[in-house]
Amino acid sequence: xxxxxxxxxxxxxxxxxxxxxxxxxxxxxxxxxxxxxxxxxxxxxxxxxxxxxxxxxxxxxxxxxxxxxxxxxxxxxxxxxxxxxxxxxxxxxxxxxxxxxxxxxxxxxxxxxxxxxxxxxxxxxxxxxxxxxxxxxxxxxxxxxxxxxxxxxxxxxxxxxxxxxxxxxxxxxxxxxxxxxxxxxxxxxxxxxxxxxxxxxxxxxxxxxxxxxxxxx
Length: 217
Fold this sequence. Notes:
This protein has five helices and eleven strands, in the order H-E-E-E-E-E-H-E-H-E-H-E-E-E-E-H. It has helices spanning 8-21, 95-115, 132-141, 155-165, 204-215, and strands at residues 34-37, 52-59, 64-67, 72-74, 82-88, 118-124, 149-152, 169-171, 179-181, 184-188, 193-199. 31% of the residues lie in helices and 25% in strands. It has 217 residues and is an alpha+beta fold.
């Protein structure tokens, strides 16, 4: 991963994500489930606009970690709210800033009433680099302080979450300051079902549209 462009390994990773969003394969399902591809021309009224919808929806894997402030966070405590779960690291030069910025725009599009029905949760893919200071700076830079939970932990704690969610995370062999990782956002319903998937380049309006539907189920 380079600051002036994407390396071939990351391009391959992003290509895989495009395939996933198209419903051909899913990292998170281990081959046991499929996804329904969504088209802007065919989405019915009241239906999700996500690039892909898990079929069947499954219970979201548990996450129990601490945020960058040292406070314990249990994903189960947000039951009753829609959840948007993603995996980031603060030194990421491209995908992570894009995801975070688009999530901020999506929140703004929702307005306060709808935004109160969703919790954004980011899980670190860099246990060494995502220090409290680095995370605080990252959130402040992207105007997301207090608007999303950023969860950290040691390598063992985080690896358990990555495995449960089917998230790839591998330090780049040529540029070890960067990490190749899955750049997806998962939509979880208020009842705790992992239902929708959004690629890193999602349209903020798509998530703004889907949050009330996730919160209602």
